[in-house]
Amino acid sequence: MTLITLVSALAATMMSPTTSGQAAPVMTNTVVVDQEMISKGMRMQNPMVGGMMMSAQKDIIDNAVNSADHTTLVAAVKAAGLVDTLKSMGPFTVFAPTNAAFGMLPAGTVDSLLMAENKDKLSKILTYHVVAGKFDFNALARLIKTGRGSTTLMTASGGKLVAMMNGAHNIVIKDEYDNVASISTYDVRQSNGIIHVITKVLLPR
Q: Which of 62, 105, 142, 169 could bond 58 through an S-S bridge, CB–CB 3.0 to 4.6 Å?
């Protein structure tokens, strides 16, 4: 039997009606479904932060404590008494400075801020990094476009941050002293908001 004859025979068999008592062949889309599930999982997967995966099912605090790059931020949040706030429903957008960002502050600044007598000052600085609502890269980019190059974000401390594009795919955040921080990791989803990792500590007036 030639290959052409074999293919023709198979095609005829598949196209012929089923006889009584025979079950029609069941066609499934199992492979397609699996591919869709995998694709969805990839879209929903959070970026790694501080060498650890961040879970979109955990809140901001429960994720932050797992990041090796944010131990200073976590210590500061605890010292300022903001743990319960950042574990609440929100949603919040947090611009999270890394340990390296805190290390760029003048020598002794972090140690001073962690002292009990400076709790209010520390709280003001930390809440200056928090914006009510959930603003991912696309949402920020839309606001910047609407604002013709920049948008002002009101922070939980009552201060203002300015978000601007730096190229087509990078957003920078400017504080009230005109210090500019780049966002190094975008869209880290949390159960109560979103985190963007930034390269500098932002300072309010």
A: 62
